[in-house]
Amino acid sequence: MEWIKDGNLDFLKKRKIEAREEAQKSVAEIIAKVKSDGDQALLDYTRQFDGIGLASILASEADKNEAVRHVPEPVLAAIKQAAKNIYAFHKKQMPKSWTEPAEQGVVLGQKVTPLDSVGVYVPGGTACYPSSVLMGAIPALVAGVKRVVLVSPPQKNGRIADGVFAAANEIGIDEIYQVGGAQAIAALAYGTESIRPVDKIVGPGNLYVMLAKKQVFGDVAIDSLAGPSEIAIVADEASDPAWIAADLLSQAEHDRLSMPILVTVSEAFGKQVEQEVMKQLKDLPRTDIASESVNRQGKIILVSGLSEAAQVINSIAPEHLELATGDPHALLPLIRHAGAIFLGKYSSEPVGDYFAGPNHIIPTNGSARYASPLGVESFIKRSSIIEYSNDALQANGQAIAAFARFEGLEGHARAVEKRMEGAVVHG
Amino acid sequence: MEWIKDGNLDFLKKRKIEAREEAQKSVAEIIAKVKSDGDQALLDYTRQFDGIGLASILASEADKNEAVRHVPEPVLAAIKQAAKNIYAFHKKQMPKSWTEPAEQGVVLGQKVTPLDSVGVYVPGGTACYPSSVLMGAIPALVAGVKRVVLVSPPQKNGRIADGVFAAANEIGIDEIYQVGGAQAIAALAYGTESIRPVDKIVGPGNLYVMLAKKQVFGDVAIDSLAGPSEIAIVADEASDPAWIAADLLSQAEHDRLSMPILVTVSEAFGKQVEQEVMKQLKDLPRTDIASESVNRQGKIILVSGLSEAAQVINSIAPEHLELATGDPHALLPLIRHAGAIFLGKYSSEPVGDYFAGPNHIIPTNGSARYASPLGVESFIKRSSIIEYSNDALQANGQAIAAFARFEGLEGHARAVEKRMEGAVVHG
């Protein structure tokens, strides 16, 4: 891990990913092909990229039932409890419609409406992410979205991962398409014979999925552009170095580009954590991935005190932040930019990744500066309500017309003035 | 105006704007140039596109004071009252942080934090939009954003429009840059010698501004991609055809691509409105623009009743919706997709454009299906809070570890299990 003792955070400037023009071009081609050839393009790309000849793009009920049988009972129970917790947390996020009188004769408000349809992308390949199904879909279900669709690439056995089916089954989602990559994003955005288009696409994916989401953005809504993820941990001797090391590694094992960061006031503690990281790395099944992440991106940042620790965290704007100091509540008010904040030494990141209830689809790569975790807010929208009585229009019409006329929009002024002149007749 | 009597809404499919590749390329070039040459690129492009040789990119206090003197007193008063109303409405939108106990030993919550810095784009050219200053900036100020910056292209007199300065002055914004177009977006996203980068860019602009926002999206947040705007009015004999016609024209005069739509159960009423539109068009100062909008995109859609009217509206998902029927409240519950809803015959669109308080930066081009008007929500973000006690971790650790292990993430499982083993020592 790289030690930073002089407060120099220049490494943050290198975080932005420059997508190669080549990748952008092939994504544009894939999107164009799906637009023109529909299902046939999905079948062709699935054969080409996943090596699977699909009989059908829609996953079958039989496949789903078969898949669920392959998931061990304790895992099904954990999925069930996690779903319950995720439901409970997200229900607290639901905003309400309101209307209120403003001045005399004026009622203003906001009407909250769920989106009609949403597509959740669940990554596939060698791994299996039932947790992503729960985290992507439950907030949409809580929001009241009627049509929630899953897409996920087929595995080597020709169907979507067992756990993905099991999680979908738990929350009652049955419109599931066995297609992944940029082609899945294009199908969700523009539709094919099998897949009706959706209004919003959410969920993380690889670089091609991310680039496809950026390209379709504007024709359809997307959640965010996921990049490599981070964990930053502020810790000191109040915590066990072995626990902190394990948490750093839980992030590192995700992805070679992940960034595990320790921020500490104690050089001695930092060294202990570093030793533990190296020790625990050895027998981690995903040691290749985790080692590359730790060696290339791992940081131990030495700070002078809590105030500097908070400054460093706010500059990083990490996806995950653990405050594993003796008094995490003293530090919390200083934190401005972090996606999910884990308080105290027992609140290990995986508690939030799987189980506690808050979402694990969190802004990455510093975008916690301006973005939020996925939530019910991601699946509703607001309409403004404006109701003026005749009296209110008479009282304010002149000001409105003067403003409009000053902007050179005479038609706007006249629309108001016609009502001022005509209100005697039509009032 | 085109009459639609058979319920065929195919015209909606043609709404999407295909940006020419050429325009995308020149925007990419402008962005690259601003990244490499900074201020010099801004000065060069401002000379090239606006025909202005700027002495400074930052607008001067002297220019601002001079500009405000050119704005008539009644307009200043209207700006002041509008600002007050916009503040009052947006204050009701502010979400609150919360933490709550979940199960035993578990506290969950959400911490709401404003963004650090925001750039508001205010269109320029021949027009002048003080209302866009208020609508773009006030929600950010209400959210608590510390640094709110304006950019707007200089006018022929070499400085930003008088009204823009006046509105900025009213709400206390003094970091104002006299630069527009894609170059302004690039400067806000990546910074130059004069302009520090911001975290989010909001506000409508022309095609180049829109394409630039799409290209920088991901490195920085943006509000939405503005396209041509719509008004849809559901009206019948309860309203004066002249008023409805004036409202259609108030949208039409904005832009040749604007779409004014009347939805009505009464063919006779539709014909009266159409006649009024043609009559009022004649002496409208912006008759060229409004005529093109009315003739090319204007629609009168005949429906069988309120239920069909609502269906049509939900398919259009208009930016602005007027419900100018006898009983607009009967129709409101059926409306799912509309940016701003004006209730009753006195609630003319300009009331909302300038004055009432809700935002006038509203999703266009059908994107009200999935997006909201600009608001306080656009300028805050949420961090999740997760706090588990030792007991809570012991109670749930096994389930979490089982879930993680099933996903193939052994490091996640171990991070939890280490705490279960070690909690006696460190508890």
UniProtKB/TrEMBL annotation, chains A, B:
Its cofactor is Zn(2+). Keywords: Amino-acid biosynthesis, Histidine biosynthesis, Metal-binding, NAD, Oxidoreductase, Zinc. The keyword Iron-sulfur does not apply. Pathway: Amino-acid biosynthesis; L-histidine biosynthesis; L-histidine from 5-phospho-alpha-D-ribose 1-diphosphate: step 9/9. Its EC number is 1.1.1.23. It holds the Pfam family Histidinol_dh. Coiled coil: none annotated. It catalyses: L-histidinol + 2 NAD(+) + H2O = L-histidine + 2 NADH + 3 H(+). One of its GO terms (molecular function) is histidinol dehydrogenase activity. CDD domains: Histidinol_dh (cd06572). Binds 1 zinc ion per subunit. NAD(+) binds at Y121, Q183, N206. Substrate binds at S229, Q251, H254, H320, D353, E407, H412. The keyword Oxidoreductase applies. Zn(2+) binds at Q251, H254, D353, H412. InterPro entries: Ald_DH/histidinol_DH, Histidinol_DH_CS, Histidinol_DH_monofunct, Hstdl_DH. The active site is at E319 (proton acceptor), H320 (proton acceptor). Belongs to the histidinol dehydrogenase family. Catalyzes the sequential NAD-dependent oxidations of L-histidinol to L-histidinaldehyde and then to L-histidine. This is Histidinol dehydrogenase. It comes from Sporolactobacillus mangiferae.
